């Protein structure tokens, strides 16, 4: 009986860690995507051709002129989903964006929030 109790505690703590790790991986991927979109916009975007980051469902996409850039779209796995307000962040030549936030969550209740400032700076 004691052995079953110990095993259940150990297994439950590890399962919670997996959910947390998935949210943290999604958070890090999203921060990297925001940085990539901002740097790309500053390097080559014209006024009429902004770089966009779209976050919805379990997908992160960075586009320029409507075309996905190399490495995107990126699909998050393990039951991790994104809820963004707004869902599209547009970066201009100076790296500025519309402000908003993205919540990365797992069905277990673990979540993280990314805040995007008007300057284009994304942080958690």
Can you walk me through this structure?
This protein is of the alpha+beta class and 124 residues long. It has one domain: minor pseudopilin epsh fold (3-Layer(bab) Sandwich). It has one helix at 2-44, and strands spanning 51-56, 59-64, 67-68, 74-75, 80-85, 88-91, 100-106, 111-116, 122-123. The strands form 2 sheets. Strands 1, 2, 3, 4 and 6 form a 5-stranded antiparallel sheet that branches. Strands 5-7-8-9 form a 4-stranded antiparallel sheet, with helices on one face. The longest helix is centred in the first third of the chain and has 43 residues, at 2-44.
Summary tags:
124 residues, alpha+beta, minor pseudopilin epsh fold, five-stranded antiparallel β-sheet, four-stranded antiparallel β-sheet, 1 helix, 35% helix, elongated
Characterize the overall form. elongated
Poorly predicted regions: none
N-C termini distance: 43 Å
CATH class: Alpha Beta
Bin the strand percentage.
25-35%
Individual helix count? 1
* Element-level helix/strand string: HEEEEEEEEE
Fourth-level CATH superfamily:
minor pseudopilin epsh domain
Number of domains: 1
CATH architecture: 3-Layer(bab) Sandwich
Q: If you consult CATH, what is the topology?
A: minor pseudopilin epsh fold
Structural class designation = alpha+beta
Instruction: Report the radius of gyration as a whole number of Å.
Output: 18 Å
What percentage of residues falls in helices of 4 or more residues?
25-40%
Q: What profile does the largest beta sheet have?
A: 5 strands, antiparallel
Number of strands: 9
Average pLDDT taken over every residue: 88
């Amino acid at each position: 009986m004691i052995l079953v109790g110990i095993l259940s505690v150990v297994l439950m703590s590890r399962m919670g860690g997996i959910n947390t790790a998935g949210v943290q991986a999604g958070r890090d991927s999203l921060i990297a995507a925001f940085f990539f979109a901002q740097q790309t916009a500053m390097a080559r975007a014209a006024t009429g051709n902004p770089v966009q980051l779209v976050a919805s469902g379990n997908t992160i996409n960075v586009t320029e002129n409507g075309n996905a850039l190399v490495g995107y779209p990126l699909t998050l796995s393990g039951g991790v989903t994104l809820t963004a307000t707004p869902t599209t962040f547009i970066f201009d030549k100076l790296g500025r964006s519309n402000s908003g936030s993205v919540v990365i969550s797992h069905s277990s209740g673990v979540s993280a929030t990314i805040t995007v400032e008007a300057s284009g700076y994304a942080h958690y």
